[in-house]
Amino acid sequence: MTTPAVEIRSVHKLYGALHVLRDVDLVVRPGEVVCLIGPSGSGKSTLLRCINNLEKIQAGSILVDGGLVGYRWSGADLQEATPRQARRARRNIGMVFQQFNLFSHFTVLQNLIEAPVRVLGVPRREALERAEELLAKVGLSDKHASYPAQLSGGQQQRVAIARALCMNPKLMLFDEPTSALDPELVGEVLDVLRDLAEDDMTMVIVTHEMGFARQVADTIVFMDQGRIVERGPADQVLDAPREDRTRRFLERVG
Ligand code: ADP
Ligand code: MG
């Protein structure tokens, strides 16, 4: 059997006394697109941040491409990923947030080559070539010399996606990538995500765009109060939810 892209087992996450992830299990297969839905405060962002090792978990294990990111129970021992293991796992992951987080004093092209050159040690010429390729992919070849402030929100988010792709991630995490955008700019960003899905990129996408989720998701995961309540293909979770909580949520987001 192929190694899962992400393997989350019995994960618990607490902020002080606040128990935000409760016994979460989730396996993401290579090439799978998972859309994570659920009410505000249900733990969606926290789960993504744990996968990316931006947050420590208190129990359970998280493996990315077979490499340990979070803790793992082995017998009675709680084993922590070494910094090297965690770094290696993280290198496989690209993350895109609601806010675009571009370097405002860098041009688009400088934004794209910064991490490959500095972190991965990719030769500058090679990084530039790859960056131009990815800008073309997100439809922004003509903007390589622009500064973020000269771009629309939709364009900035597409640059942020291209920037994450410059690191050649095996897994992309998106946390409400269109929530900060004016409605007329949402489509162009979702189009880029659709293209990535067609290229078989493995993705976990937190989104409130149910129409989009229905189109691209292999699996929809519904979370509430720190638990995965329900998961399955879109036609099952969205059209014939088994759980009351899922049904009520879907009625609300309509
Ligand atoms: P979602 O993304 O589904 O809206 P979050 O993962 O952001 O939910 O938050 C889950 C819960 O954890 C919420 O109750 C939130 O207030 C809490 N929380 C998130 N981040 C922190 C933090 N850094 N410190 C304390 N509590 C947090
Ligand atoms: Mg969130």
From TrEMBL:
Instruction: Supply the InterPro entries for this chain.
Output: AAA+_ATPase, ABC_ATPase_HisP-typ, ABC_transporter-like_ATP-bd, ABC_transporter-like_CS, MetN_ABC_transporter-like, P-loop_NTPase
Query: Which residues, by range, are in coiled-coil regions?
Result: none
Q: Which catalytic reaction applies to this protein? A: a polar amino acid(out) + ATP + H2O = a polar amino acid(in) + ADP + phosphate + H(+)
The keyword Ion transport belongs to this UniProt entry's keyword annotation: no
Extract the PROSITE patterns matched here: ABC_TRANSPORTER_1, ABC_TRANSPORTER_2
Q: Which PANTHER family match?
A: AMINO ACID IMPORT ATP-BINDING PROTEIN, PHOSPHONATES IMPORT ATP-BINDING PROTEIN PHNC
Please identify the protein, giving its name as recorded: ABC-type polar-amino-acid transporter
